Amino acid sequence: MTPNDVLRSLRYSLNVHDYGMIDIFALGGATVTKEQVVSWLKKDEDEGFSAINDELMARFLNGLIIQRRGARDGEIPVPESRLNHNIMLRKLKIAFDLKDDDIISLLSTADFRLGKSELSAFFRRPDHRHYRECQDQVLRYFLRGIQLKFRPVAS
């Protein structure tokens, strides 16, 4: 999954319009235009698509944390220059105020089973012997679980 995939999924799940996306970026300390947001949200094969860089995606996730939970001591966190799935998962966990059981529940809602010890391995330091890289599949099912929670399918 690319950062653009995560951005598209979050926008859909939270039902945020273009200007709402701009506001979230601003909370994270980034000034972006509507044209930039639109180009990041296009599908990879569409004309006018552009890839969002890791720093801007980190600023978006930081802005999402601030929007949903408030700023910590009024400061904007320093964005990471390199993102991976583990960092994105951690930031989303913070933004949605999720505990391990909540994440496991979201994953099971999306028909994916993961144990508590497997999950905790994603949040360890990379130099820890039990650290594990978060794979595309886990992040995809986690985002699907968020979508099912915040934008359920109408029956």
Order of helices and strands: HHHHHHHH
Number of helical runs?
8
Largest sheet: none
| Helix proportion | 55-70%
Molecular shape: globular
In percent, how much strand structure appears in the residues?
A: under 5%
Radius of gyration: 15 Å
Overall number of strands: 0
Structural class by sheet pairing and helices: mainly alpha
Question: Whole-number average pLDDT?
Answer: 94
The span between the termini is 29 Å
Low-confidence sequence ranges: none
Describe the structure.
- It is a single chain.
- Helices cover 57% and strands 0% of the residues.
- The longest helix is centred in the middle third of the chain and has 16 residues, at 54-69.
- The chain is built from 8 helices and no strands.
- The radius of gyration is 15 Å and the shape is globular.
- The model has no long low-confidence stretch (mean pLDDT 94).
- It is mainly α.
- α1 (3-14) packs parallel to α8 (136-150), α2 packs across α4 (54-69) and α6 (100-109) crosses α8.
SSE diagram, text form:
Elements: H1 3-14, H2 18-27, H3 34-41, H4 54-69, H5 85-95, H6 100-109, H7 116-122, H8 136-150
Helix pairs in contact: 1-8, 2-4, 4-5, 6-8
What does this entry show, briefly?
The chain is mainly α. Helices cover about 55% and strands about 0% of the residues.
Label this structure with key terms:
155 residues, mainly alpha, 8 helices
